[in-house]
UniProtKB/TrEMBL annotation:
Gene3D superfamilies: D-3-phosphoglycerate dehydrogenase, domain 3, NAD(P)-binding Rossmann-like Domain. The lineage of its organism: Eukaryota, Viridiplantae, Streptophyta, Embryophyta, Tracheophyta. The keyword Transit peptide does not apply. This is phosphoglycerate dehydrogenase. Keywords: NAD, Oxidoreductase. GO terms for molecular function: NAD binding; phosphoglycerate dehydrogenase activity. It comes from Gossypium armourianum. Belongs to the D-isomer specific 2-hydroxyacid dehydrogenase family. The keyword Oxidoreductase applies.
Amino acid sequence: DVGKWQRNKYVGVSLVGKTLAVLGFGKVGSEVARRAKGLGMHVIAHDPYAPADRARAIGVELVSFDEAIATADFISLHMPLTPATNKMLNDETFAKMKKGVRIVNVARGGVIDEEALVRALDAGIVAQAALDVFSEEPPKQDSKLVQHERVTVTPHLGASTMEAQEGVAIEIAEAVVGALKGELAATAVNAPMVPAEVLTELKPYVELAEKLGRLAVQLVAGGSGVKTVKVSYASSRAPDDLDTRLLRAMITKGIIEPISSVFVNLVNADYTAKQRGLRITEERILLDGSPESPLESIQVQIANVESKFASAMSESGEIKVEGRVKDGIPHLTKVGSFEVDVSLEGSIILCRQVDQPGMIGTVGSILGEEN
């Protein structure tokens, strides 16, 4: 086509008045929304963990996933690849979209079922797709998706511009200078900032805190956004003798990392929680007895959500999990109002059984047969 004057081949569509659905309303998604508003687009977004006030501030309406994909003329993807988002766009979801929708994926390749996307393109459901990411990178040269005439591809460029590279270099230099001056490095990926002796004593409790947060968030039903978390520490030590910053950071890490692509540490935990509209409160329960051990138990409650597992709900309506350290190993000791004693290692299956003889043996046999 070099040298040919083919104007008809490059006829596009106007963005003014069109509806853009931003799936994943984090830092990148919200910036895309701002720019789309400037182009005269109506912008909606889906992200169960995005603060509604942040969306309203830029004139964006938060809607359900089904509403977003059904009403959009354009769909822009900005979510992490997690078990919940893996192949989120598939044959079933493509069938719910407007005919002629256009899709941009600059998130992760696995959020789209690529074979289903080819079928949707061939069927005319998807008019065009622009892809910067793929489930296999680099994709095979004979890939039907890459070769499709209505697909524009780039080699996972991300923010690959001269200005961005210069900006990253400056940010790194400033962070190093700040650290050398003794300042907190806000972009540090591993900065415990806790005395070595305290860290050694808290180590098993740090692991317990993260695992309780991770377990609690996995009990939240998919459509529920986690906004309010209460953490209770039961200890014989006086509050001044127990620094919970690291424990709170690890609970935050356990809650946020399974549902996002953000890496959480002691430095950025509070900031990351605030950005996601997550409010974490702490309670100290002072116990009688010798304060040899720093903690007796940690309890994590998530309020105002629905649960995948009804028995995980407390009598007051929150998801509740509790644990303690036994012989240096984190143990789960309570789920909802049920007392348990399970080592928090490997995979855990939660199931509510009929109270009759033989059920434990039956469940055990099924698990054994399925290996």
